[in-house]
């Protein structure tokens, strides 16, 4: 049985997101910063009379920070009944693929925490990313 996935790029890597989590894909010109939030929250964004929390996918993976400003692409996802905007580098397409398989490679801790398997698309393995793991952000560092 095949399932739908959204193909996007995060940290220079093509990844797949389960399409059932995706509400839409948008371009944002501005994000309103919020003081004293955890580093993976880039700020807030208003979309169709809703206020969305903007998640910096790079920071959520512990791989740096996305420069905020200019035109940015975001994938709007629903997690635990709340909408979030996940910043991504680009969005390609929605594709059908067989059910995910376990990862076939050893992943770095950052990617392993967000990965839920792999899919194959046009002969290329793509990491399946759990949007909820990006929303949760990196594990807290003990002081």
From TrEMBL:
<dbReference type="InterPro" id="IPR039315">
    <property type="entry name" value="CheW"/>
</dbReference>
<protein>
    <submittedName>
        <fullName>Chemotaxis protein CheW</fullName>
    </submittedName>
</protein>
<dbReference type="InterPro" id="IPR036061">
    <property type="entry name" value="CheW-like_dom_sf"/>
</dbReference>
<feature type="domain" description="CheW-like">
    <location>
        <begin position="2"/>
        <end position="140"/>
    </location>
</feature>
<dbReference type="InterPro" id="IPR002545">
    <property type="entry name" value="CheW-lke_dom"/>
</dbReference>
<dbReference type="GO" id="GO:0005829">
    <property type="term" value="C:cytosol"/>
</dbReference>
<dbReference type="GO" id="GO:0006935">
    <property type="term" value="P:chemotaxis"/>
</dbReference>
<dbReference type="Pfam" id="PF01584">
    <property type="entry name" value="CheW"/>
</dbReference>
<dbReference type="GO" id="GO:0007165">
    <property type="term" value="P:signal transduction"/>
</dbReference>
């Amino acid at each position: 049985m095949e399932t739908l996935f959204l193909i996007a790029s995060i940290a220079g890597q093509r990844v797949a997101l389960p399409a059932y989590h995706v509400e839409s894909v948008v371009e944002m010109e501005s994000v309103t910063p919020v003081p004293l939030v955890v580093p993976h929250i880039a700020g807030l964004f208003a979309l169709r009379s809703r206020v969305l929390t903007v998640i910096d996918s790079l920071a959520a993976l512990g791989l740096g920070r996305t420069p905020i400003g200019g035109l940015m692409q975001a994938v709007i996802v629903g997690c635990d009944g709340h909408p979030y905007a996940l910043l991504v580098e680009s969005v390609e397409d929605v594709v059908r693929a067989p059910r995910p398989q376990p990862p076939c490679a050893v992943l770095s801790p950052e990617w392993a925490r967000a990965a839920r398997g792999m899919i194959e698309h046009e002969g290329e393995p793509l990491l399946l990313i759990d949007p909820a793991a990006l929303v949760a952000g990196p594990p807290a560092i003990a002081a």
